[in-house]
Design brief:
The protein has 483 residues and is of the alpha/beta class. It folds into 2 domains: 365 residues, TIM Barrel (Alpha-Beta Barrel); 46 residues, no CATH class. The protein is built from 17 helices and 14 strands. The strands form 4 sheets. The chain has an 8-stranded parallel barrel, surrounded by 4 helices. The structure holds D-xylulose and cobalt (II) ion. The site of D-xylulose has 10 residues, from loops. One of its GO terms (molecular function) is xylose isomerase activity. Keywords: Carbohydrate metabolism, Isomerase, Metal-binding, Signal, Xylose metabolism.
Length: 483
């Protein structure tokens, strides 16, 4: 490395640090612009009129439509493979991305200036935001939503203050839900943002943090239950380590299991019948996250006797971060009876982190739907759009367009799966591939009754086996023809 390169490197580092700091320090100017808003009045959650004027209720117009604010493939009431599309999907809006995403990144300040935001993190703002969220869901025609405790209400200086803030906002959500079918697909608690959680929550080295996290989950479960939520998610954002040199991994995993068992006990105590879900992710923010992937989470559940109490929430971008395809993670969950929910998003093949983009790849969506159809659907789980607008997408209508596009893509995936099933040749290819096991000895093997002596005798009798083609290209051809 030349001296000049070194200087350039240092300058770049300073520049990066500078922009990261200014992003943290700058107060976002979110007060609007072009609507007659009751802005800068943090004491009031009043908002006269619509939050999304000019955006109609989104309708199905069919594939020929050129209207970006319409569904082209997702037709909620249409029956496909014996179920209404809306029941296959059970789409959900993720409150944190859609209503708390600001477009800020480590190098830059927020880019969104939603008209309803007043730049504060007050309870009044939280209530107004909740009303915007309900108008958004109603216009989109989505009946489920997901939230973290701290997305929907401001934190407090004490647990009691944070709980009181949450109660105020939850009361508004409850009221808005009244008379509608809207309810949470799942709730969760944010156990990764606050500095107290820097070593983890249930796996923190500090017992005070463990207890604090338990108090937070207890409350978040109560409000999820109160709002009629159907599931509760544990994403172990900082349940992992940065170095094994300072970490007692065995102790941390034991603590995590005790924590989850306490959550199971509390769920039963308060009569919450929702499914508990673990959301695997291999890393980010920690170097190593304990719920690395579906198989790792399954092994953990088995070791601690928690199978039967938990299912998995598979997120596609997390799958690719762990070096798997989303299809692989879905199938791993499915064949073990653990597929409970999908965080529908995707990463960017050129970027190695969790970009949380809306899925718009039809082939990928078809693979996802193959697993979902084989699973018989996801209910009481669903598809949560854990996905955000790009930093550069700053129009209010982009929030709608992104969701419509994600829903249409998955709807195309479902329609393609119906074609594949009707055609039958892919299933037949797979069936044929294993047909040698349809024999008497194959049945013995599958029943666990073929010992090595029997197999050796058979192998000697048969001699060198003939091995058929795997037909991969044919399988790919059949798959592609359905897209
Ligand atoms: C983070 C992530 C979370 C969880 C909920 O990568 O996916 O938003 O879904 O905590
Ligand atoms: Co997620």
């Amino acid at each position: 490395m030349t001296d000049r390169m070194k200087v350039n490197g240092v300058l770049l580092l300073l520049l990066c640090l500078g922009s990261a700091l200014s992003a943290v320090i700058a107060t976002p100017q979110t007060c609007p612009a072009n609507l007659e808003a009751k802005c800068n009045d943090a004491s009031s959650d009043d908002w006269e009129g619509e939050f999304f004027p000019g955006i109609p209720k989104i309708k199905y117009e069919g594939p020929a439509s050129k209207n970006p604010l319409s569904y082209k493939w997702y037709n909620a009431e249409e029956e496909i493979l014996g179920k209404k599309m809306k029941d296959w999907f059970r789409f959900s809006v993720a409150f944190w991305h859609t209503f708390r995403g600001t477009g800020a990144d480590p190098f830059g300040a927020p880019t969104k200036s939603w008209p309803w935001e007043d730049g504060t993190n007050s309870v009044a703002m939280a209530k107004r935001r909740m009303r915007a969220h309900f108008e958004f869901m109603n216009k989109l025609g989505v009946e489920l939503w997901c939230f973290h405790d701290r997305d929907i209400a401001p934190d407090g200086k004490t647990i009691a203050e944070a709980n009181a803030n949450l109660d105020e906002v939850v009361a508004v959500a409850k009221k808005l839900q009244e008379g509608s079918k809207i309810k949470p697909l799942w709730g969760t608690s944010q156990l990764f943002m606050h500095s107290r959680y820097m070593h983890g929550a249930a796996t923190s080295s500090e017992v005070g943090v463990y207890a604090y996290a338990a108090a937070q989950v207890k409350k978040a479960m109560e409000v999820t239950h109160y709002l009629g939520g159907e599931n509760y998610v544990f994403w172990g954002g900082r349940e992992g380590y940065q170095t094994l040199l300072n970490t007692d991994m065995e102790k941390e995993l034991d603590h995590l299991a005790r924590f989850l068992q306490a959550a199971v006990n509390y769920k039963k105590k308060i009569g919450f019948n929702g499914t508990l879900l673990i959301e695997p992710k291999p890393q980010e923010p920690t170097k190593h996250q304990y719920d690395w992937d579906a198989a790792t989470a399954f092994a953990f559940l088995q070791k601690y006797g928690l199978v039967g109490e938990f299912k998995l929430n598979i997120e596609c971008n997390h799958a690719t971060l762990s070096g798997h395809s989303c299809h692989h993670e879905l199938e791993t969950a499915r064949i073990n009876g653990l597929l409970g929910n999908i965080d529908a998003n995707t990463g960017d093949p050129q970027i190695g982190w969790d970009t949380d983009q809306f899925l718009t790849d039809i082939a990928e969506a078809t693979l996802v739907m193959l697993s979902v159809v084989r699973n018989g659907g996801l209910a009481p789980g669903g598809f949560n759009f854990d996905a955000k607008l790009r930093r550069e997408s700053t129009d209010v209508e982009d929030l709608f367009i992104a969701h419509i596009s994600g829903m249409d893509t998955l709807a195309r995936g479902l329609r393609n799966v119906a074609k594949l099933i009707e055609d039958g040749s892919l299933d037949e290819l797979v069936r044929k591939r294993y047909s040698s096991f349809d024999s008497e000895i194959g049945a013995l093997i599958e029943a666990g009754k073929a010992d090595f002596e029997t197999l050796e005798k058979k192998a000697m009798e048969w001699g060198e086996p003939s091995v058929a083609s795997g037909k991969q290209e044919l399988a790919e051809m059949i798959f592609q023809s359905a897209l």
